Amino acid sequence: DLPLVLASVERAVRLGSRKAETFRTWGVVELLNGDYAKAQLRLEEAIATSPSDGEALRRLAVVQTARGYTDDALETARSAVAIDPLNAGSRVTAGLIHQFRGEYAEAEAQYRRAVAEDRADLVAAELHAEVLVYLQRADDALANVTDIAARLRTDPGVHYQLGRIAQTGGRPKSEWTSAFEQSRSLLEEQLRVRPDSALALSQYALTLT
Question: pTM above the 0.85 mark?
Fold first, then answer.
């Protein structure tokens, strides 16, 4: 309940709270509300209170990117990485900014480090595979997504991505049709349980294209 969270943090500040966590939470709520100017202001207050707040820096980088300040965003994301080099989330944020700017080699380096730091971070792994395709390294992307699919056997989206990479990478037709069929089969199971699932329906349509 965003309005309730917003009211709570505003009251906490009125009562004298100057904790970085309070301002960070306030900034995240404003970000989710789509008010990027207010989000930036609150996150900057969190960082002023606690300069080593890596999560506030990471969120600020997201806001700066949304506002079009990608140079500032990269600098902020690098600061977050420097504070906690093992935080895969900060590296993913830096990678997303590079990817947004069309800097795919730099994005790939950040995603690769994120995956190395946390193999359980499947978002980083999928983003890494995606940018490898942009770099025309389809075989590497395919290997990455094959590994993800082995860990997420019941995720239709992963099997669809596997098929799409195999298809665009010029792999034999049998490879990508098999992946699409696996994705469709999993989605049909989901739709039997929830026939009104918009997400499953849209994903199913993709497997037919």
Answer: no
